[in-house]
Amino acid sequence: HEARAARYDFFAEICRERGYENLILAHQFDDKFEWFLMQLGRGAGLSELLGMQELEPRDDYVIARPLLGVRKCELERFLKGRNLKYFTDETNLTNRFKRGFIRAKFSEPFLNKYFGGVKKSFEFLATDALSLTPEISNPAAKIYLIKRDRGELRGVDLACKRLGLVLSSAQRNECARCLENGAGCVLGGKVAVGAGENFILVTPYIKAAMDKKFKEACRTLKIPPINRGFLFAVGADLALFEELL
Fold first, then answer.
1. CA 120-134-185 angle, 5° bins
2. pLDDT lower than 50: segments of the chain
3. What is the C-alpha to C-alpha distance for residues 170 and 15, in angstroms, rounded to an integer?
4. What is the C-alpha R_g of the chain?
5. Closest by alpha carbon to 108, among 63, 147, 73, 81?
6. Which of 16, 53, 83, 212 is the most buried (most CB within 10 A)?
7. Residue ranges of domains in the chain, CATH in brackets
8. Residue 86, C-beta contacts closer than 8 angstroms, at least 6 positions apart
9. Element (H, E) at 63
């Protein structure tokens, strides 16, 4: 988890510095199915099970995974048939880590037999997920509003991903408890999730000293305290929230 976060931070910085709009990743279908099984084993909802998508908007760029419908063995045949050099991570060949164990014992043998059916199932699940897609608005950079309803936790999960944070199961549970109690929380030390009456506000977390006028405006608009530091630091237009929170 920590290594993945570091890698995304590294490439996100390159995208920002050079103005790239897309980050293209080489995840393939086997990766998608392995992720599915790992989340299934942890106890996850539809959002987490289908967490690996072909297009995934982040705050400053879009992640694209054009190979997500192709099996790893197909890619290897393509490379070998054209005598193209590629590298294999040695940790992929051991059962020391959970992903390697799932790959060797479950995902590869299962896909070798039932790839067509699994691929079709993912298509059905993706269609079903669209009907559960939460209402998310992005009124300004790094500011996300999720309408409060049964799908609000999925909305928070998506907003956190756009801010560069992939939630763990523990973080998701912590967030659910806070929202249920009408409180705010900081996830991963970097994302602030505030509970309003009608909307949930998700922003980066910044602890800032605010002037009295700004504090009073936030109190009047009922902007969650956990988000106010970021809004003050970036000079956000509070009028954006007059009819929402």
1. 120
2. none
3. 30
4. 20
5. 73
6. 53
7. 2-130 (3.40.50.620), 136-241 (no CATH)
8. 76, 79
9. strand 62-64
How many angstroms separate the CA atoms of 174 and 150, rounded? 17
Tell me, what's the pLDDT at 5?
83
* pLDDT for position 40: 92
pLDDT of residue 175: 92
Alpha helices by DSSP H, listed for the chain, are 2-18, 29-42, 46-49, 72-81, 98-102, 108-130, 152-162, 169-180, 212-221, 225-233
DSSP type of residue 20: -
pLDDT recorded at residue 182: 85
**146 DSSP β-pair partners:** 136, 200
Is residue 8 within 8 Å of residue 48, measured between CB atoms?
A: no
Residue closest to 56 by CA, chosen among 169, 182, 142, 159 = 159
Mean pLDDT of the chain: 89
Give the model's pLDDT for residue 243. 64
Structure tokens at 60: 């400053």
Task: Give the pLDDT of residue 1.
Answer: 75
Q: What is the pLDDT of residue 70?
A: 96
DSSP output for 64-88? E-TTTTS-HHHHHHHHHHTT-----
End-to-end CA distance of the chain: 33
